[in-house]
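At this stage, I put together a protein sequence along with its fold in token form, as given directly below:
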Amino acid sequence: MKNLLLFAIVANSFSACQPDNIEPINPNDKNNLTIEFDHIAGAQNLALGSTKYTNASGEDFTVTTLNYFVSNISLKKTDGTSVTMADQYFLVKEVDPTSLTPVLKDVPAGDYTSMTFTIGVDSLKSISAVDQRTGCLDPASYGTDNMYWSWNSGYIFFKMEGISSKAPANSAGLNKFQYHIGGFGGRTSATANNLRKVTVNLPSTATVRKSIAPTVHFLVDVNGVFGPNVKIANGAVIMNPAISGPFANNYQNIFKVDHVHN
């Protein structure tokens, strides 16, 4: 799955192998739509803890952790109307292969041309009662890989950690960088809002029918989180929402659709 050359070959096959006789749309029909996230670093596949990459500033880095929340997904049809998939939240973790293919349940039959989603957990869900935050939103389910700040009462929307020679040595002697990005805008007063919305046009129509459950395949380039405004040498640890805006702005643009498989 992680061979980029194979991606290109398969993508061409998928685009050339659309069904010739697609069943008509029945407004009462529903099916699943799978989103597949493949993480890369530039032209290389992402391998946790074992491969050294170089960002646009020439800084070396190795990724040891990559997690992020995907929520508030909506799909736009060929007729311009949109369908919002309410209350479906996903935690994508590179270390967990099962999390890399989240499944949208009960998508209405239709032909879809674009997708919009949020990186993070919206303010309404973030402040809802604990019994309404189940599954991947349950802080008790994270174990040692925490995606919730108990001290800050909020979710970590995007977490990337690793090793770089440009990061200062910590108390354990490791040159570690840590980027924990959160902040939904505040409860009673305005605070930093690092929720980011991603909208992508699909290279071919995602066809949902009673007998067709498509897959939308993303390539997610972690190299894109770096740039002139985010350098490891200038800040190896970012956890304060107030200074996380540039990082959030960068990861908003790292999601690209490679192909659609109907």
Observations:
- The first helix runs from residue 4 to 16.
